[in-house]
Amino acid sequence: MPNSDWTTIVGLEIHAELLTESKMFSACPVVDSVTAPPNTAVDPVSMGLPGTLPVINKRALEMAMMVGLALNCEIPPINQFARKSYFYPDLPKGYQISQYDRPLCVNGYVDIDLSDGTTQRIRIRRAHLEEDTGKSMHTMDGSLIDLNRAGVPLLEIVTEPDIHSAEAAEAYARKLRTILQYLGVNDGDMSKGIMRIEPNISVRHKDDTDYRTRTEVKNLNSIRSLYRSIEYETTRQIKAWENGEGVRQATMGWDEAKQRTVVQRYKESAEEYRYFPEPDLPIVEVSREWVAEIRAGLPELPDAKRDRFMNDLGLSRYDASVLVADQSIAHYFDAALAEGANAKSLANWLIGQLFGLLNSNNIEREAIDSIKITPQQFAGLVKLVDGGTINKATGVTVLGEMFETGDDAQQIVDAKGLAQISDTGAVDAAIAQMIAENSAWVDEYLSGKDKLFGPMMGKVMGILKGQGNPGVVKELLAKALEAKRK
After folding, report:
1. Are residues 178 and 260 located together in one domain of the fold?
2. N or C: which end of the chain has fewer CB within 10 A?
3. In a domain, 1, yes or no
4. pLDDT score recorded for residue 265
């Protein structure tokens, strides 16, 4: 925080499109709203034509309940859709069907890990279903409207104002995105608007007894922008309060080029939306049996997978948390583990070496499935190192070539003669050469400068072109030096 007298207060609204085959209130198919030709997935309902009637998508309800249960929410026995007066050019009927006082999921929570090693619980106020709007595209000649996205099932997940830093907001958003991916209800591709984040931001002085005025930053399409907008808006609000200007409740946009928030409009209240029960849809009764059926079908979620990695495989909490943070990484690790490689070695090589290659090649971790090294090949490399066929340094070299070519580790080792040298005769010969070439070091070592052992071992490894077995080299070098004392 810029000033220890102030605390950041953030509540997040995250909008996630659900991966159903059809739209929320009609049989119209859901398509990729970025790649599909404009206005090719529309029907009378999504176009808001007079006389059309909505029908609730049962699969969307079930997916939303899956999310609610994964977020430790209660699923009330009764929920109801409402009309929200919400004029936009890309919302043809002039209102949005959403949920208001009877949402599908309430009173949940998510636990997040922070960089200082602590865990924080973020409470979930509600998660409710609604329909997405279309998209407007503005050009120099006018505005164009694409209604492919209109009517797509949209789940809005709302936290309590429990978040007190940009770091915590980022951790929560990443955790939620991971949960949605594990459930298979959203692929987390924020670049396509499939998941959008809206932080409600205010600040609180140490002497305050209530919340101050907040602003809402709309439609952020990256977690990086979420972090930066909270940092900027917090600083701006503190300065405004300290300068006596105050803060007006407003909807803000994030200017990526200027890295700042800008006012879009001054905020409406809930009353201005004129919510009332949707007359064309029935109240939805959710039986406890239905909830139990949905719960029984939930997959292994990130926290459960993390705990399994810790308890069954002996991984540290940090390593296990990193491995489950992206579903594709967890799948990659599980597939490599199935090949019989050691779990801790796999984790170390994956987090250390393979992540390093991904970073240096500007590949996101979640895109690990796109690289040339299969989990089976990766496990093969780790087993070669653990089995003593090659040492770690050679393993790093081999991994780099695997990354470029997609060849198996054993194939590369055989083709280039990279197998580790454990033959005592070859190692003794290299040690003898090192002693002959570095007699001054040997004398200093024998006189008490033990720290020279490492450099001398490095010289031996150099003579062996990095292929010496470190354990064998260390043992035989120590014996050879001790023999010199006598």
Report:
1. yes
2. C
3. no
4. 86
